[in-house]
Design goal:
nine-stranded antiparallel β-sheet, two-stranded antiparallel ribbon, 5 helices, 11 strands, 34% strand, elongated
Length: 277
Amino acid sequence: MDHVRGSSLAWPATLDTIRPFIVTWWSGRTVEDMPADIRDVYSAADFGGRHINMALVLLDENGKHLRGSIPHVRPGEFRFNPESQGRDFKRQVEELVSGLTLPKFVPPEKQVLTLPTVCGPGKPNGVRIYLTAEQNRMNHYGTPIVEAVPMSGDLRKTLAYPDGERTLSATDLKPWLEQMYPAAIMDGKGGFRKIEGNLAFKSAGKDDKHRFATITGRVDFELDNVGTSTYSGDVSIVVSYPLTESTVESIRGVADFTVPKGPERIKITAALESVPE
């Protein structure tokens, strides 16, 4: 079980070692989120009550638990060098499979990378959020993160065209804002203690086909992780509507914030676009 937002290590050789065993993977924030079959595997591995960023579990062809381990990822010991971390992780995987007869590896067909999407009634179906980070010493936020959030009925009502100006709270946009955190930082219960702030929501002109509104303001975040990380971000969103309707047609926006992570301050940018665009 590996959270999608884990550190980027030197994966290719490591994956070749364990790929014959990989049937599925799951990522999530808490044990309570696990589907029943994944929880059975987790329980059989008997990891106890420890917090887990990543766990590897090997099963036999009948689904019986063979071995499990929680890899130790120690970036500080390797001066935050991803190649060195990757080699150490590969060593741990090789120890996990030591003595087992590995099935012959058949390379899979090359997969086409696709963006996550959401399906549901009405358009837009939802919003994609792209998270990118500036270069940093820890050097493990190089791969962009993309999340897809469905458009709920409450969000549609909240974002109905404003006549004039009104105030939105950060809670109104929580389904989007709670995605705005960097990889490998959720070492608590996997959530936020607070997401707070007021945002100005006001009409902003029109063109031949649409009228527009903007959402702007500053949002304060507090994670429930061990270090109680706090950070703030400026949010700017443009919402478009048909000329004669108040229902949302499209959404685009950006948010910038700096998140404390160990000895660093990681600058993160979140870009939002509606799906389908």
